[in-house]
Amino acid sequence: MARARVYVTLKKSVFDPQGQTIHDALVSLGYDGVKDVRQGKFFEVELGGLPAEQARQTLEEIARKVLSNPVIESYRVEVEG
Q1: Going by C-beta distance under 8 Å and a sequence separation of 6 or more, which residues neighbour residue 12?
Q2: For the stretch 27-37, what's the b/e string if a residue is b when 16 or more beta carbons lie within 10 angstroms of its beta carbon?
Q3: CA–CA gap between residue 19 and residue 33 (Å, rounded)
Q4: Is 32 left (phi over 0), alpha (psi -120 to 50) or beta?
Q5: CA separation for the pair 45, 5 (Å, rounded)
Q6: Which of 6, 7, 63, 76 is least surrounded, with the fewest CB atoms within 10 Å of its CB?
């Protein structure tokens, strides 16, 4: 069984209002060392019966077509097992 993590974040060129709100809150709480916050999504996916490389290809396709909006978001896939 392949287990994977998919991380989806807004591209650097896209304004992140939630990240900005979190950043502002952290600074107001005294965390002056925080220079930027980017908000994102995290998915854990399990695939059964696929070899590692096929699992990676399948997850890349799922991330590109379903879990992210490739116009404004980037994604990263990490496969275990």
Answers
A1: none
A2: eeeeeeeeeeb
A3: 15
A4: alpha
A5: 6
A6: 76
Q: Over the chain, what HEC string results?
A: CEEEEEEEEECCCCCCHHHHHHHHHHHHCCCCCCCCCCCEEEEEEEECCCCHHHHHHHHHHHHHHHHCCCCCEEEEEEEEC
Say which CATH number the domain at 11 has.
3.30.1280.10
pLDDT digits (tens, 9 = 90+) for 4-46: 999 999 999 999 999 999 999 999 999 999 999 999 999 999 9
Instruction: Quote the pTM value.
Output: 0.83
